[in-house]
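Fold tokens
===========
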Amino acid sequence: MLLRKWENLPETMQTDEVRKYYDILKEKRVSLFFKRVFDIVVSLILLLLFSPLFLVLAVAIRIDSPGPVFYRQVRVTQYGRRFRIFKFRSMVQNADRGSLVTVKGDARITRVGKFVRKCRLDEVSQLLNVLIGDMTFVGTRPEVPKYTEQYTKEMMATLLLPAGVTSLASIYYKDEALLLDAAEDPDRIYVEQVLPAKMRYNLRDMEKFSFLRDIKIMFMTVFAVCGKEYREENA
């Protein structure tokens, strides 16, 4: 993946706050190149390997509740471009007409959806987004436009790279579910508390970016899904 020239960035990103991170990434062109090559090769291999799983999930989802197999919500990726994410549907059809955040015990989650979410299988289909370039394996998780429109100038720096399937914020930040479950207004709490906390990790990761560090985070994600607990000081 290549960085645009500074003057070709969206005007909302041409700020001093973003420039700091742009200059860091500009010096890591080789790592960015290998990051994209890795995304293409590994996503293609995994899609072939997981094709039987995709078929089983598709059948289970269709039998469990009416609606499409995939949930195609609009998210935001590199340079503020909007795209439709691939996620195996874990909620009832048209669930996003309500709150855009999900809390524990959400009545919109289907029976199959509970299993899919617990094992994080709904995320596997994002391999399609990685292959076509909407996403990358490691990067800031893609938000809906409603939330990116509330980014601070510094948060906009995370849009220098494609949105990611996983990140250290996803591994470390354990308070999100607790805060949202207890909140009367989950959307407000997400914007005021959860999003800024996660962004601190994401911005720090951009400062430390390297291709090998991405590989490390991918392995950490696999171990975390298998039950391993990580503390921030062990990063």
